[in-house]
Design goal:
With 163 residues, the protein is mainly alpha-helical. It has one domain. The protein has six helices and two strands; from the N terminus they run H-H-H-E-E-H-H-H.
């Protein structure tokens, strides 16, 4: 029989909050539609759902229910798909926007499921990769500031000498 201690359950819930906060903080800092609160709630909801799915039907209600625990997880992903769809907009001036935020919300739900199932290494690695991906434009700008200007200055100096 699968069981989970109260301590482990709390660790998973607070880990989900941390993952949601980190990914949502980046979106909010860049003035996108969904920020930390939304990401925390999505990750927390997915975590709770996966805990219920994996542990909630066995022994905790006095009898065993024969069911497919993956159904709850599939329901989470379906619902998040609808939430993500609402984040994507098309306007005549800027084209399509919100795709990255929608994908990030979906990933946050998947990471909440992973945390709820206790897959900490997978969650940490994926969160780190996702955060670096979201920050890649800012990282490029900072690297250009540090190193790019020197190359541009050298090119401008060469062009000035050639004239």
């Amino acid at each position: 029989m699968l069981t989970i201690s109260d301590t482990e359950m709390l660790i998973r819930l607070f880990s989900a909050c941390g993952v949601g906060f980190l990914l949502g903080w980046e979106r909010g800092r860049n003035f996108k539609q969904a920020g930390s609160r939304t990401h925390i709630l999505v990750c927390l909801m997915a975590c709770v759902t996966s805990i219920i799915s994996a542990y909630g039907y066995v022994g905790n209600i006095g009898f065993v229910i024969n069911s497919d625990p993956a159904r709850l997880v599939v329901g989470v992903l379906t619902g998040i798909g609808f939430l993500g769809t609402g984040l994507i907009w098309k306007d005549s001036q800027h084209g399509i926007s919100g795709i990255t935020t929608a994908a990030n919300i979906f990933l946050t739900a998947v990471l909440g499921i992973a945390v709820g199932l206790g897959l900490y290494k997978l969650t940490i690695a994926t969160t780190l990769i996702a955060y670096l991906t979201l920050e890649s434009d800012n990282i490029k700008k900072k690297l250009k500031k540090l190193f790019g200007n020197k190359e541009d200055d050298a090119k401008e100096a060469e062009e000035a000498e050639d004239k």
